[in-house]
Design brief:
About 80% of the residues lie in helices and about 0% in strands. The chain is built from 13 helices and no strands. The protein has helices at about 1-30, 35-55, 60-85, 90-110, 120-125, 145-150, 155-170, 175-180, 185-190, 195-235, 240-270, 275-295, 300-305. The termini are far apart. The relative contact order is 0.16.
Length: about 300
């Protein structure tokens, strides 16, 4: 047990926390038909992260979060501007902005010296989940020992805070977000501000993305923003159940993917391990396929009824 706590617990917790936070927020993007916005944000925050490092010379959480949020808001404004001026379809405008900003971020990494502090392409794409260890753990008592918890990797503690912030935001704005998602015109007519709520969602998604970047990388962030919400949408039409099912799918995605990264190489007799973040995306794809095939609205069910 002690070995598991030291080598795997922090990484597994970070994976589950990242998937859950992103999965819950992904519902808001899916229900407003803006799932690609999560992809855009997860790519667009990269130049903000690098600029935060360039300005401060450190990977401290606050400047990174502020830089990422600034980049995300800039990306949203650019998408809106391009749609209005060029009259492009939303997906095309998002594709232009996020690909351009992600490329800018990669260039800044190469020319700024950020590679020397693990802010490199591999870190950005695949994360560094396997590097999250907790040497201070000495047993189950460490889980409630303040001294041991203080030595928990910063990424895991940050993701726990982000999940708490996400849950608080959803609880406080539950009815408003529901109204803005399904009837924004009515919401505006009775005094709610759909644009203001959209900005709140944008900020929450930006914070979740930057927190998850260090641990799981951009590939899993994109999958976690889309897959759990899509899985839940295939299983229910109920708003509350949508969030509950997406949270369950996110936990399965994080824990199942981490476990698969350990077990699959052993079962296949491979001489090397598998990337945990990549396996989580694979598990998410399998869960999505199962929901599509066997869910209440699934293809297999429709064929059997017919």
């Amino acid at each position: 047990m002690t070995l598991f706590l030291q080598l795997d617990f922090a990484a597994l917790s970070a994976a589950v926390l990242a998937c859950t936070a992103c999965g819950l927020l992904g519902n808001l993007l899916l229900l407003t038909r803006q799932s690609l916005l999560g992809d855009a944000i997860s790519h667009s925050v990269l130049p903000g992260l690098v600029m935060g490092f360039i300005v401060t010379g450190t990977r401290a959480t606050l400047p990174m979060v502020l830089g990422a949020m600034a980049a995300a808001v800039l990306a949203a404004l650019l998408i809106s501007l391009i749609r209005r001026l060029a009259r492009l379809e939303a997906g095309a405008a998002m594709g232009v902005v996020f690909s351009g900003m992600f490329a800018l971020g990669l260039v800044l990494i190469e020319v700024s010296g950020a590679r020397s502090v693990d802010l490199d392409v591999d870190c950005v794409l695949y994360g560094q989940l396997e590097a999250l260890i907790w040497p201070a753990a000495t047993g189950l008592s460490s889980l409630w020992d303040p001294v041991a918890l203080a030595d928990m990797p910063q990424e895991t503690r940050t993701l726990a805070g982000v999940l708490a912030l996400t849950l608080a935001g959803l609880a406080l704005l539950w009815k408003e977000l529901r109204l803005a998602a399904f009837d924004p015109d009515f919401a505006a007519s009775i005094g709610f501000a759909p644009r203001g709520l959209s900005l709140v969602v944008l900020v929450l998604v930006s914070v979740a993305c930057v927190a998850a970047f260090w641990a799981v990388g951009s590939i899993l962030v994109i999958a976690a923003l889309v897959a759990p919400a899509a899985i839940a949408r295939l299983l229910t039409d109920d708003y509350r159940r949508q969030f509950l099912l997406s949270a369950a799918a996110a936990v399965l995605m994080g824990a199942g993917g981490y476990g698969a990264a350990i077990l699959v190489p052993w079962l296949l007799g491979l001489g090397h391990g598998l990337n945990a973040a990549g396996m989580m995306a694979v598990v998410a794809g399998l869960l999505l396929a199962l929901a599509w095939a066997f869910g209440p609205y699934g293809r297999v069910r429709r064929v059997s009824v017919a």
